[in-house]
């Protein structure tokens, strides 16, 4: 078994935290800068995060019996803890979003549950430790998908935390706090699933294939998801087609979109490693900003 690539980082730190959404100021329906499609997009992403992050955790935990490196073991524990807390906090936000009329939460949760049941059946019938060859590729594919998703969230996180224009989009204070914290921790653990994949000798061709398909489809999937969300639950918005069209143009012209596809494609290169992109100065800056002596989120920690 090959040795894991040691990340420059960082053991991801699990922070118990809570966000008082809608207090004291109620949330606007279009809580992302008044932009209709962008608010729907963030709402749908928030619906997908908790079951998605649970799937990420399962895909990594499945290989925990093979991880011998103490540093990687510790990073895996941090990754699992962080993703579990992300799910909890996004579910809190999701309750608020459902109250505000957004739909899609149940679909995400139900799909996540079905997926989990299917995976649990597979793992119970063919425990990975005893039957490593059974469903070998399927299991590697789930881990490679997690490593790919982690690259995607790291790309978005870096943009969110480094572009003032991206910070300006987050006009709801508690959603801003949540997304900044989530983005920060995504950067802290961005290479953990990737290093587990390498440590257990996951095939590079499979990881590259999954990363390339994801990079080619992710933007259209997000756009379609946002539009379906508007069509499915927002009659008020549908009476304002010109506003929606202007908002779509605003999104595509936004600096956060510049070079996005190119950055997403980076993970599709053979030999790519998430730490090839050095985000430690950004992490240092935001660590001070959020959790330093006068950190903006100190009063949110439990
Ligand atoms: Fe997360
Ligand atoms: Fe993550």
UniProtKB/TrEMBL annotation:
Listed transmembrane segments? 213-233
Q: Which domain of life is it from?
A: Bacteria
Q: Which Pfam families match?
A: Metal_hydrol
Task: Please provide the record's keywords in A-Z order.
Answer: Membrane, Transmembrane, Transmembrane helix
- InterPro entries noted in UniProt: UCP07580 (IPR016516)
Protein name according to UniProt:
Metal-dependent hydrolase
């Amino acid at each position: 078994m090959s040795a894991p690539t040691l990340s420059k980082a960082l053991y991801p730190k699990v922070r118990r935290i809570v966000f008082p959404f809608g207090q004291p100021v109620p949330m606007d329906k279009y809580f992302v800068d008044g932009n209709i499609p962008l608010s729907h997009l963030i709402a749908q992403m928030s619906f997908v995060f908790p079951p998605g992050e649970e799937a990420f955790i399962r895909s990594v935990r499945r290989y925990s019996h093979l991880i011998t490196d103490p540093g990687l073991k510790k990073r895996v524990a941090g990754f699992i803890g962080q993703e579990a807390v992300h799910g909890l906090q996004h579910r809190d936000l999701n309750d608020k979003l459902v109250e505000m009329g957004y739909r899609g939460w149940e679909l995400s949760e139900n799909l996540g549950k079905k997926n989990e049941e299917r995976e649990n059946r597979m793992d119970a019938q063919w425990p990975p430790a005893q039957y490593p060859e059974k469903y070998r590729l399927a299991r590697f594919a789930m881990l490679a998908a997690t490593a790919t998703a982690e690259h995607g969230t790291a790309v978005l996180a870096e943009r969110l935390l480094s572009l003032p224009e991206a910070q300006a989009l987050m006009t709801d204070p508690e959603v801003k706090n949540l997304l900044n914290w989530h983005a920060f921790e995504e950067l802290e653990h961005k290479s953990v699933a990737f290093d587990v994949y390498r440590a257990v000798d996951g095939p590079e061709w499979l990881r590259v294939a999954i990363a390339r398909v994801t990079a080619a489809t992710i933007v259209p999937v997000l756009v379609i998801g946002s539009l379906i969300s508007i069509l499915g639950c927002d009659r008020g918005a549908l009476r304002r087609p010109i506003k929606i069209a202007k908002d779509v143009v605003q999104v595509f012209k936004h600096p956060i979109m510049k070079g996005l596809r190119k950055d997403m494609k980076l993970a599709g290169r053979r030999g790519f490693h998430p730490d090839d992109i050095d985000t430690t100065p950004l992490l240092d800056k935001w660590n001070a900003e959020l959790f330093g002596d006068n950190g903006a989120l100190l009063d949110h920690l439990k």
